[in-house]
Amino acid sequence: MSELASRASELDATDELAGLRERFVLDDVVYLDGNSLGALPAHVPGRVEDVVRRQWGELRIRSWDESGWWTAPERIGDRIAPLVGAAAGQIVVGDSTSVNVFKALVAAVRMAGEGRDEILVDATTFPTDGYIAESAARMTGCTLRPVAPAEVGRALSGRTAAVLLNHVDYRTGRLYDLPALTAAVHAAGAIAVWDLCHSAGALPVGLDEHGVDLAVGCTYKYLNGGPGSPAYLYVRRDLQDRFDSPLPGWNSHAEPFGMRPGYEPASGAVRGRVGTPDILSMLALEAALDVWDGVSVEAVRAKSLALTDFFLECVAAYTPAGRVESVTPAAHAERGSQVALRCSPTLDFARAGGTPIAGDVMKRLIERGVVGDFRHPDVLRFGFTPLYVGFADVERAARVLGETVAG
């Protein structure tokens, strides 16, 4: 056994979160793609079967009351709240991240008031956020201005209505300074909107502590809610009576069953609802969140940093010099829960059909039981979910990577 493999065994033996792996359906594959789709919690299939067979199959429409379907968006929001540092009553679950970004941005511009006609958006954002921001800008008569997060402070002005930022960059894994950036946005009199897709469930967020105005996030990554599981919307409590949604559906009406032609928004986070919630996927998410019982986000963060530190050390030891380089920051304060490695263009790989080198490398890794993903044009991305990834997984992944790029 190599020195690194021996150390991995020792680290796993003292890992206080190691037992959580048993809560998931896993096999011998090293699964490092939980930042795209989290693994299946083992108890979820049984819970979903109950929802389908008993709640839907037997109780049918009675389940809206008797099984708590109607209140699920707020109830599940309260389950997510402590994972992102929010008190209860500020998060509603439903719709996709894209839809919630649209709600949040338009509402932010409306709250910002007259004279503010510019939206700043992270220039390196996940493309959909940019598309939605562009549409929201057109709808509200604003100018959209893409800026790098490091340039936000200088870009803010009295014209700025809202700023949409990612807590963690999806390509590089860079963690941005949410407290400082939020404070800068507020100092300019604007509204801060954060996308938490790559941070919720991986590290402390502190929405309430840092005064974030609005936030959105998906639940199928580190929250393990399943493919396409519903997203969530956070509206800070003192802003809820001003939250003017551009999608005023019947589920957010003050009297949803009154069927009145005029719209009157409900109070609280319920204003973030639109139409009938997707109950099957929503209750699968609710079941998945049980894996967090007794788990602190701080402990998860500590293990995440230890895993990514160890991975970078193993990559340096096993990979021939010059074959890959990390584009993920080494500093803990600037690192999320993933490591992105850029492949050297000098790698001599057959590229049938013009497949990028990094794509070919990832294909070979997957064939050998190490699953990450590829981001065009040259990045290998590895996500570390501390609830089920161990140090032996990390050592094996780096060793296989080294063997693969060595040719």
Summarize this structure briefly.
35% of the residues lie in helices and 13% in strands.
Written description of the protein model:
- By secondary structure, this protein is of the alpha/beta class.
- The protein has twelve helices and 13 strands.
Kindly state the percentage of residues in helix: 25-40%
**What is the CA-atom radius of gyration, in angstroms?**
22 Å
The overall pLDDT, averaged over residues, is 96
Q: Separation of termini?
A: 23 Å
Number of strands: 13
Low-pLDDT ranges = none
**Largest sheet features:** 7 strands, mixed
SSE order, as H and E?
HEHHHEHEHEHEHEEEHHEEHEEEH
Oligomer: single chain
Strand arrangement, major sheet: 2-8-7-6-5-3-4
Query: What percent of residues are in strands?
Result: 5-15%
Helix and strand composition category: alpha/beta
CA-based shape: globular
- Continuous helix count: 12
Summarize the SSE layout with pairings:
Elements: H1 3-13, E1 30-31, H2 44-59, H3 63-66, H4 72-80, E2 91-93, H5 97-112, E3 118-122, H6 127-140, E4 143-147, H7 152-155, E5 160-166, H8 178-187, E6 191-195, E7 214-217, E8 232-235, H9 279-288, H10 297-318, E9 324-326, E10 338-343, H11 357-367, E11 370-371, E12 373-375, E13 379-383, H12 391-406
Parallel strand pairs: 1-11, 3-4, 3-5, 5-6, 6-7
Antiparallel strand pairs: 2-8, 7-8, 9-10, 10-13, 12-13
